[in-house]
Structure to design on (378 residues):
């Protein structure tokens, strides 16, 4: 916070409702530690692959991806750089999303100084709390930086169970937009395949 | 039984006079609608951005409605509040938006406003803080009562919503 930082690693986890389960893929993990390049506009590039398959009986509790970023501060301590969360997109296709990150703030200036000196910054006990609605009213945070995510989504059997995730405009796109393809198989529950890549823009 | 899922987040707010903001939100729906799962109201965290002019909340919304009709399609009511460095909260603005009626992914910018008081009240707001508030915040989305108000424009709240509908085809509803 007092100096610009140039290294970061992210931890990711999926938060899903109780009707959901993960059939395949890692449900949490850690990226590599990335350092900024020497460009004029330096970015932190992760190029980190994510693949996951979810299965559910109801769209309630749609999966969310929760990210927590950590890095070294000037004294060599591992401190939290930001938390962020986003819902996995619901429509099949390729989606690019930008997720802003935020850190909890210390209660007072003195606490802020102590945190900087000792390297013990305020953090969430469980990062998954940012994906829930309750209990956030009293949190004070500072937002800094963002992460760029690219999602490729495939869904299965949503239409055969009566769900619509796109309006007619979306299903019959204009002639120049040819990239989407829909894989609809006839049987089974409600699985969804997801593959994602991440990169981080300047923190 | 027709069902509607609203899944998404209140991303943040921008264009306000100061940037230490939080948002109280509530989703209203007509009498034919019933909430099956999810929280209908909540309050985001207080965010003060370090570099950007936008305060980011990323507050998740996940609601599951069952409905018998299209009237009273859900609306989200927003109140943007400001918290100063002493921890005092004051209301900045009101806003509302209909949840989009088409299934799919939507990025929305909800414009907001605050009620304008008399000259004395405006001076008080400038110097002491605090602001005029509506006695009944639900009026924000009623078409018949708003003619009585004078309002001042404030910033925008950014929403990212996904809507999934189910079984409307059986009743002939075309999206």
């Amino acid at each position: 916070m007092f100096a610009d930082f140039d290294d970061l690693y992210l931890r990711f986890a999926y938060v899903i409702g109780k009707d959901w389960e993960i059939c395949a893929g890692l449900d949490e993990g850690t990226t590599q530690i990335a350092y900024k390049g020497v460009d004029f506009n330096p970015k932190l590039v992760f190029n980190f692959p994510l693949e996951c398959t979810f299965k559910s009986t109801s769209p309630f509790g749609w999966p969310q991806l929760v990210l927590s970023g950590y890095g070294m501060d000037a004294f060599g301590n591992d401190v939290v750089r930001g938390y962020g969360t986003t819902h996995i997109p619901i429509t099949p296709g390729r989606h690019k999303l930008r997720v802003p990150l935020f850190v909890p703030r210390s209660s007072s200036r003195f606490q802020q100084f102590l945190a900087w000196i000792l390297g013990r910054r305020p953090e969430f006990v469980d990062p998954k709390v940012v994906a829930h609605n309750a209990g956030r009213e009293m949190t004070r945070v500072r937002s800094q930086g963002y992460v760029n995510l690219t999602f490729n989504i495939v869904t299965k059997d949503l239409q055969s169970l009566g769900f619509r995730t796109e309006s007619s405009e979306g299903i019959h796109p204009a002639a120049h937009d040819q990239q989407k393809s829909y894989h609809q198989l006839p049987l089974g529950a409600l699985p969804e395949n997801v593959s994602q890549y991440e990169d981080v823009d300047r923190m | 039984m027709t069902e509607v899922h609203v899944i998404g987040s209140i991303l943040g707010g921008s264009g306000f006079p100061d940037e230490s903001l939080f948002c109280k939100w509530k989703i209203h729906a007509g009498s034919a609608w019933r909430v099956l799962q999810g929280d209908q109201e909540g309050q985001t965290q207080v965010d003060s951005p370090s570099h950007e002019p936008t305060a980011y909340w990323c507050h998740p919304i996940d609601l599951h409605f069952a409905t018998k009709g299209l009237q009273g399609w859900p609306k989200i009511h927003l109140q943007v509040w400001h918290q100063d460095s002493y921890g005092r909260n004051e209301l900045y603005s009101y806003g509302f938006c209909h949840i989009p009626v088409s299934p799919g992914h939507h990025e929305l910018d909800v414009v907001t406003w605050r009620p304008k008081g008399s000259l004395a009240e405006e001076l008080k707001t400038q110097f002491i803080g605090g602001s005029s508030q509506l006695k009944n915040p639900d009026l924000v989305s009623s078409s018949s009562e708003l003619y009585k108000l004078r309002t001042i424009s404030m910033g925008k709240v950014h929403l990212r919503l996904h809507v999934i509908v189910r079984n409307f085809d059986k009743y002939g509803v075309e999206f």
About this structure: The mean pLDDT of chain B is 90. The longest strand of chain B covers residues 151-166.
